[in-house]
Write a structure and sequence with these properties.
globular; Methane Monooxygenase Hydroxylase, Chain G, domain 1; 307 residues; mainly alpha; 2 domains
Length: 307
């Protein structure tokens, strides 16, 4: 046995002893284990079986796969955010590196809208979209979790109600005044539409738990808790600002522009599939959603979303 093999065996002994396992049993198991393959590890057959069309229109497949790719990227983003939020002590480099990764994913999401904007026939989209009502990208639970994990709840409250809500406000009351609630309510009666009713039936309980957990442990609170020398690190501040602007302006406007190409393609006014006033719901100058408000000047805040 070589010196290297002895060292490996020693490390294996330490590993399995630490969890109360017999090293010989695990080594014996390796004798009978199959070799790992790409398809076993990545599971492409399972992944590629998830695209189920509702119509016979070919471009619906583009629409389905594009949104599924978005959800995979959202999962990657949450994975990185949680590493920052759950780490007891972070330095400027660790924080900056994670934010750079996250921003890179959102940069990819922003530029990818041409896949839909230029990659689907308007005529086909205007046909198959009618089979999707009342479903909407609004109902992406992972995207809502990214928002909760990025900032304090007050920064996600509908701008009209922020003055009446603070840290002592019950979570459920704050939830009912989140900015995106406006897209799911009748403005005259306050009654929630089917879009948001179905969304809440599936996710509301989880959202309330996540709001509670993330409100004091998110990217913004983590940043504010850092020592002054780390908070003033130029690369970290730049990464924070880039992430904030990318998520809340660049990516939103890319989505807004892509939606406009289809929803304004004819002479008839068209609503989003969920029934919302998509222009006011989506445009950042109306929502004024800003994750890290103290990192922006008064002038920058005043002109937020004006591009």
């Amino acid at each position: 046995m070589t010196e290297n093999q002895e060292e490996i065996l020693k490390r294996l002994e330490e590993k399995y002893q630490a969890i109360g396992q017999n090293t010989d049993t695990h080594l014996e198991g390796l004798v009978w284990a199959k070799p790992l393959t790409y398809w076993d590890y990545i599971q492409p057959e399972a992944l590629l079986s998830l695209q189920i069309q509702r119509t016979t229109l070919p471009d619906e497949m583009v629409f389905i796969m594009y949104h599924q790719i978005n959800e995979l990227l959202f999962k990657m983003i949450l994975w990185e955010i949680d590493q920052v939020c759950k780490k007891d002590e972070v330095n400027a480099k660790f924080f900056s590196d994670k934010l750079t990764r996250i921003s890179r994913y959102f940069d990819m999401l922003s530029s990818s809208f041409t896949i839909m904007g230029d990659g689907m026939e308007v005529e086909q989209y205007m046909k198959f979209r009618n089979t999707l009502t009342p479903a909407s990208g609004f109902q992406s639970a992972q995207y809502r979790l990214i928002e909760f994990a990025s900032t304090e709840i007050i920064n996600l409250i509908d701008f009209r109600f922020r003055a009446t809500i603070d840290r002592n406000t019950p979570i459920e009351h704050a939830y009912d005044h989140l900015y995106w609630q406006a897209a799911g309510k009748d403005h005259k009666t306050g009654k929630k539409n089917t879009l948001i009713t179905l969304f809440e039936e599936k996710y509301k309980d989880e959202f309330l738990l996540k709001m509670e957990a993330y409100n004091t442990n998110n990217l913004w609170t983590k940043f504010k808790s850092l020592p002054p020398d780390i908070k003033s690190d130029e690369s970290l501040v730049k990464a924070m600002r880039h992430y904030d602007y990318t998520v809340n302006v660049t990516w939103v406007m890319a989505h807004y522009t892509a939606a406009g190409k289809y929803l304004e393609s004819g002479t008839k006014k068209v609503e989003a599939t969920g029934g919302s006033d998509w222009k006011k719901y989506m445009h950042p100058k109306y929502q004024r959603r800003i994750f890290f408000p103290e990192l922006w000047s008064a002038e920058e805040l005043e002109k937020w979303g004006e591009i």
